[in-house]
Design goal:
This protein has 339 residues and is mostly helical. The protein has one domain (7-338). The chain contains 17 helices and no strands. The protein has helices at residues 7-14, 27-34, 42-53, 68-74, 90-94, 99-110, 117-122, 144-158, 161-166, 176-198, 202-212, 217-224, 230-250, 255-278, 282-310, 313-330, 333-338. The radius of gyration is 19 Å and the shape is globular. The two termini are 31 Å apart.
Amino acid sequence: MKKKFSLAAGVITALLVISTAGYSWNYATHAYIAGKIGTLMPILKMNQVYGIMAPDIFNLDFSLMDDAVLRGYTHGVPLEGTGGPNQNFMAVWRNADGPFQLADALGYLAHNDAWGADYIAHWYALPAPPPPFPPPYQNEHPGYIIALAVQLDQILDGAGVWTGLAAPPYKIELSIDERMMFTENIIEYAGDIIIKRADPGIGQKIMEASMVRTPSFWALLMRAFPRQYKPLMKAAEEAFQQSMIEYGVLLQADEATIISVVSNQMAGFAIQYLAFKLGVDPAVLYPTYMPVLEPIVNQAMVISIKICEGANYMKEVNATAAYVAGQLQARNITSKLLR
């Protein structure tokens, strides 16, 4: 029997699960890209959609944010990256067995930083990267999402947001890297709003893909990842699957509701990060910080949507999908799935 979800209940539940650390295109954007590549067979396409979102499984765990080994198996590093190149994520493809796992793995590979969708988001925008960023952004890589995040950060900085947060009573002093993590997350969720406008059914696609993904997906990751991550794998993947079901439900709501829920959760994400950084219980920080952070995030979301509109977001996403399809074909990945 197909599992059914109440949209209202799903949105409420989604409040608890979407406060993840963003690193690239967001989930709906990746799902849209997965729809443009690989097989046309519906059940395999669903596995591709889930697979392309899955490299972000461990984003829920702040303690793993700086784990370079794990990053290699989820995203990798391009030739020009610090310590690159790294394509350890290819182990997921090499360990895939049968059409469903191959479809999952094709999607998984399409996500990566070395030559996949995230390469464009992080490292080299299409058709050409932006000019070098001015200080304090001079060390940022010229990816498309990075360029938009820099724009957002400049607007927030010019409006006095960061200096206001650094002053009493809040005393939130953020490094440029922390500010960029914050603005990247907001840009990514704003991008998903643009995707929903282009594909109103994207939320249902994410929900269904997450519901029907092959149950052996976590076992595939267990085979592919180093031993130290195996104790984490099953629980992390199952939690991620549930969060993607609920995010798919959220994306079926109206735009104002999505912005409101995401703003609430991004403010919560910031508080959870600060609590992790300070080594305190997030509950101690919520009463002080939530009333000031949520309105900031809400306004930043509105600004970010306008930034994405002005930067031809869908044009870049469609160009990225074509680029990724070519990269998969050049490595004989797509052709193996279609045989």
